[in-house]
Amino acid sequence: MTSTPLLSATGITRRFGGITAVDNVDLHVAEGEFLSVIGPNGAGKTTLFNLISGQDRMDAGKVMLEGTEITNFPPHKMAGIGMARTFQHGRVFGNLTVMDNVLIGCHTRLRAARSTIPVVAPLLEILKALIRPKSVRDEEAAMRAEVREIVATFGDRLTPRIHQPTYSLSYANRRRVEIARALALHPRLLILDEPTAGMNESETAEMQSIIGELKAQGRTILLIEHKLNMVMQLSDRVMAMDNGKVISQGKPAEVRNDPKVIEAYLGHSAIGGDDHGAPGMMPLQAAGGAE
Ligand SMILES: Nc1ncnc2c1ncn2[C@@H]1O[C@H](COP(=O)(O)OP(=O)(O)O)[C@@H](O)[C@H]1O
Ligand SMILES: [Mg+2]
After folding, report:
1. Is residue 235 assigned to a domain?
2. Over the stretch 9-19, which tens digit does the pLDDT of each residue have?
3. Which residue spans adopt a coiled-coil conformation according to this UniProt entry (predicted)?
4. CB-based contact 218:32 (threshold 8 Å)
5. Domain containing residue 253
């Protein structure tokens, strides 16, 4: 890599009791790059992403975003500097509508961009919320228009349901809402933790094409994914983990054919979406042979 990476994480380590879930991992992502992290269940992928995005605190290591240290920043600060993520098991506010869930992403972005003068800034915000001057109404209308645009990325999946509470949506639709909310942050780095976990084949194909579109827009994306076909097609680079360590990295085909990766997966019997066997689970060799 010639230029300064957008994200640079070095020596990342996290221990849980006697287990070192993430063991001295380095990870670099260049602007516009699509990097996937693969590995059997328990390899440490989610923990690594939790550490990078501030959901968990590391025991050792350093994270830099474009040369600025952001190690162990709290999640709201991470969001403010343009790091947006989705979660392996999906997290949306069930009682809020699709519109309001995605608006949260817009609000987070605006709040981060605004003045942070103590006392004065919050008071000004309250005053503006009470009086609702034209500037506030215009801003809100613009945000709602933007939410509609983002939601339209998902075809007719979400738009007809935009005013429904998300608890009434299908699981696949709730996962789409989560991605829409992440996009509303205008992320510099989009982190997706198994975006197709629990999805059937056609839902997976649809999600893959949406992620492919996000890639085509030139976004910088970090993906954790078990479905190897998807990883092979989308990634510029793949990093494989096992037992908290990086065991292989490089071009997708190189990593897939690396004996260390094959052994790690065979040792764990299958590339699973989650512990109870998500659809799309397939042995590595079958995934390779299907190409
Ligand atoms: N909060 C936690 N407390 C204790 N152990 C944890 C915790 N989170 C993860 N682990 C352990 O860390 C290891 C890595 O887990 P995880 O990062 O979820 O793996 P992956 O996402 O690759 O499946 C596993 O052994 C898991 O049991
Ligand atoms: Mg995980």
Report:
1. yes
2. 999 999 999 99
3. none
4. yes
5. 1-80+187-195+220-270
